[in-house]
Description:
The chain is an alpha+beta fold. It has helices spanning 11-14, 23-30, 34-42, 61-67; strands spanning 20-22, 51-53, 56-60, 72-74, 97-99. The strands form 2 sheets. Strands 1-3-2 form a 3-stranded antiparallel β-sheet. A two-stranded antiparallel sheet has the order 4-5. A hairpin with a 2-residue loop joins strand 2 (51-53) and strand 3.
Amino acid sequence: MSGRSTLPLGFAEALDLPLSVDLRTAARAFDICPATAYKLIRLGAFPCPVLRVGGRYRIPTAYLLRTLGIEERPVYAVPLEDDPAPAARPHDVHVRALEIPE
Length: 102
């Protein structure tokens, strides 16, 4: 039986994360169960930097996205309502990229 209780983090959901996330959210992003994430932290092998804040772990979203291979973060990932030039297809999305700092 898998320790996962939710689906892996989707691309659109990943781009809508706050500045840092809890360990369970980071585990979802890597599609691993939280127990495995805790074990990797204890072994010093978690795939990105982890902060200990009080009794909890926090993972900076910029590091999480970079580890996942997402180097640019869209400013908005939903269709623009006021766009004077509509997209060629209704499901097209306009995205402006914002570089994640090193």
